[in-house]
Automatic annotation (TrEMBL):
It comes from the Bacteria. This is Cytochrome C. Keywords: Heme, Iron, Metal-binding, Signal. It comes from Marinifilum breve. One of its GO terms (molecular function) is heme binding.
Amino acid sequence: MKTFKIFILVAIALFAFSFTVQQKKAGPWEIPAEYKKMENPLANDKASINKGKMVYMKHCRSCHGNTGLGDGPKAARLKTFPGDFTSAEFHAQSDGELYYKSIIGRDEMPNYEKKIPSKKDQWAVINYMRTFKK
């Protein structure tokens, strides 16, 4: 019986590991110059962060997770890792770069221009994502 329990635990671990091995890091993004220079028109204040949180929880957390670690319930089904919003690499990007990646999207990251039609809401999400820290 003890051997069977160990076998089951090893099988579960290998099964879980197989999902993480298959998921790769996304390749580099080609972001147009106009987005690289784009500045967030919203103040990074409590109101915009709260609005951004509501939009994020509705549209983003299923893949990116509650705290931006890329560990949402749908993340394991993706071919590429959704990203870590707490990383220094993420925070080194301009708001315009984050906007392009988050709203325009590519590949498995869908376009959100129609799902989040309000420009204020789109930029509020960027402000909220900036709150994720390690």
